[in-house]
Amino acid sequence: MDIVHRVVLGCVTAAMCVNLGAPVAVAAPDGRGAEPPRQCFDERPAMPKDPDLLVPEGLDVPPEEAGSTGDGSNNLSFAQFRDGDIVVAMESLSVGHAGIWDARYATGDRSLCVWSAVKSVPACVLREAPVRYRTYDKAFGLYVPGVAAATRALVRTYCAAQNGEPYDISSSKTNESRWYCSKLVWAGYFRRANRDIDANGGYWVSPADIYSDNDTVVFAAGN
Predict the structure, then answer these.
(1) Which pTM was predicted?
(2) Higher model confidence: residue 115 or residue 34?
(3) CA–CA separation, 79 vs 56, rounded Å?
(4) DSSP code of 109?
(5) What domains, with CATH codes, occur in the chain?
(6) Which of 25, 121, 155, 195 is the most buried (most CB within 10 A)?
(7) Which helix (H) or strand (E) holds 114?
């Protein structure tokens, strides 16, 4: 083999080794194009939780207004949301709203891309627009570290499968045919990711319970 062929072969081999060892950016499941590789199952920088919004230990009260429209406003950005992320909005410990982000339908703030259970007519599980969560005093984007993108897609699919089922604030956690907003979110992660994101583990799970749970991390906030 002459010197020219040896040089060319050496360059090709080196390039192959570099390519095999380097992480490859793959298309994001939410349609935002290629993203740089991330470690630890899509973890994102954490923001501190507001101590004034955390649920006191042992408190378990019915979230009577969960699923209602708020009477405030906030500036939460939805730019960082990915498939299976959680959006939570609150005005007090017992008033708020929660839903699961479905990236398949996310084309803007008014696209119907959040699965939740609403109290108002038609009082059922449905897809709603993210802007609804801006009608509260505060709103947050949450994710659950250690849950891979494929599992988050299963969580979203579980919530979507309940489409049209009735709203019922008195329903127990074991009842998988009647819902309220934060129960739907909790059940998706419990049934498909084996993660219990109810901070106090009571009969009810409120939006504040999900916000307060040690398994959820804030990655976006609006006030």
Answers:
(1) 0.80
(2) 115
(3) 31
(4) T
(5) 1-37 (no CATH), 51-222 (3.90.1720.10)
(6) 155
(7) strand 114-117
- Is residue 122 reached through a cis peptide bond, with omega within 30 degrees of 0 on the bond before it? yes
Residue 97 contacts residue 70 (beta carbons within 8 Å): yes
Q: Rounded CA gap, 118 and 140, in Å?
A: 18
* Rounded Cα gap, residues 137 and 11, in angstroms: 60
Nearest partner of 120 among 86, 89, 166, judged by Cα: 166
Note if the bond before 207 is cis, omega within 30 degrees. Answer: no
Res 12 pLDDT > 80: no
Angstrom distance (rounded) from CA 223 to CA 106: 22
Give one DSSP letter per residue of 27-94, joined into a string. Answer: B-TTSS-B----STTT----B---GGGSPPTT-----TTTTS--SS------TT--TT-EEEEEEETT
What are the tens digits of pLDDT across the range 165-223?
Answer: 999 999 999 999 999 999 999 999 999 999 999 999 999 999 999 999 999 999 999 99
Angle CA(49)–CA(192)–CA(32) in degrees, nearest 5?
65
- Measured CA to CA, the distance from residue 144 to residue 146 in angstroms comes to 6
Identify residue 153 by its one-letter amino acid code: A
From the list 174, 75, 167, 160, the residue with the least C-alpha distance to 119 is 167
